[in-house]
Fold this sequence. Notes:
The protein is an alpha+beta fold. It has helices at about 1-15, 310-320, 335-340, 345-350, 355-400, 415-430, 440-450, 465-485, 490-520, 525-585, and strands spanning about 30-35, 45-55, 75, 85-90, 95-105, 115-120, 140-145, 150-155, 160-165, 170, 175-180, 185, 200-210, 215-220, 220-225, 230-235, 240-245, 250-260, 260-265, 270-275, 290, 295-305, 325-330.
Amino acid sequence: xxxxxxxxxxxxxxxxxxxxxxxxxxxxxxxxxxxxxxxxxxxxxxxxxxxxxxxxxxxxxxxxxxxxxxxxxxxxxxxxxxxxxxxxxxxxxxxxxxxxxxxxxxxxxxxxxxxxxxxxxxxxxxxxxxxxxxxxxxxxxxxxxxxxxxxxxxxxxxxxxxxxxxxxxxxxxxxxxxxxxxxxxxxxxxxxxxxxxxxxxxxxxxxxxxxxxxxxxxxxxxxxxxxxxxxxxxxxxxxxxxxxxxxxxxxxxxxxxxxxxxxxxxxxxxxxxxxxxxxxxxxxxxxxxxxxxxxxxxxxxxxxxxxxxxxxxxxxxxxxxxxxxxxxxxxxxxxxxxxxxxxxxxxxxxxxxxxxxxxxxxxxxxxxxxxxxxxxxxxxxxxxxxxxxxxxxxxxxxxxxxxxxxxxxxxxxxxxxxxxxxxxxxxxxxxxxxxxxxxxxxxxxxxxxxxxxxxxxxxxxxxxxxxxxxxxxxxxxxxxxxxxxxxxxxxxxxxxxxxxxxxxxxxxxxxxxxxxxxxxxxxxxxxxxxxxxxxxxxxxxxxxxxxxxxxxxxxxxxxxxxxxxxxxxxxxxxxxxxxxxxxxxx
Length: 586
């Protein structure tokens, strides 16, 4: 017997390790993993036929590649061959949110290999008929999601239907939820919604009370109610206490009855159990009333004609509450599966999770990065040419015997200063042996001023005021050369200072949009939040990616430009000193 059980478990696990692709016409899939090991939601027994909600969002599903109405969506078992029955409660391609209920054939205990797949990305796929009531096993009698478009809370199995409209809260626990304001919602008596006095039955629902008071469920002798935050169940004359319910928080309430034992569970844990005396019990049947005197939200009412196990209840609670320890999702494509990649494409997930504002910010940062790289390369080549040209000129200048010999041939002496200026100035301006040397341009500026004053002709000398004028002209040229060397460097400072702030702006807006989408979906778990926030942080990374290289490049270029500026200043002092020695008034 033990061998057969072990063989059965191995056969169930075999499909889990498959790396096939159900149909190549579907371009992507989302892998949904249910972890029942000690690291997840631990179970002792195998569970079959559990219906779980699969929450799809921009972090785990590419809505852009799927059909706008989700009609190409397919759910497939872990063997990657068997199509599964599913029901779409919500599909919003505009806001990239969806809730799909799917029946998982088998969930093995103590393993993280339980998985199913959600396929999409086939624009030519024919519409799939909604499986509706067929999603649930034969023991499930009634299921109400409170997401009906007409506002009338109807049972997905078709057994019961409300006689009055329901106030719907769009952003509930799983898609939409019902909102109660103290008035009961009644359902007519149904022949299927009943149970013997001793059971079996399982009743489950979620509540988020505004005030911890009121009757949650009432049918014949059965009543589940809140009294000052204390949960209790009454069956005939027997009353069972079930612990406290915190207001303003979602809580899962489950009642089971079997073999005369009544039990209450809150959030997957048993909070009360007792034997119902046979003389105090009565058959459960007749009209159903929800929310009499209750104020708050109510969601996911399920009635089953069987006593569910503790493991079933725990897994149902964890799956419906989107416990990240149980449910993990990741997006896959045929390429990643065929290549044998063991992990998800994290950068693909990040880029898919980017909001439009984040994409816009990253695009701007990309332009800034391109400009910064262009400026750094342009300036690096310019400084290199300048240093080489300055070295070549200084070698010539050091060898020259005449201070003005490198500025061109001197003009013919003349008694007229105006004539001498006309003759000497073109000689200085037409000679340009070192076009990339700013020091040479300083030299030409000084030589031009000396030629204007006809130095070197006869006994012509410079006064102190004339030497100051020559130095002022060369200093002015120094300023112009420094402006030329530092031109466009401001673009690097903009990238350094503005890049991180632009990235931070993209991150903050992206996080705001992510939380707004989570609030709209009512899906407050790390799997829903993490991709959006990670994508938003990509904008900050991009901002730093622009600023950091720009900072290094700016400091490096500034240091080299500073050396060139220092060489120019040294040359000015040397040139003026030599001019004073040669042409100064003695």
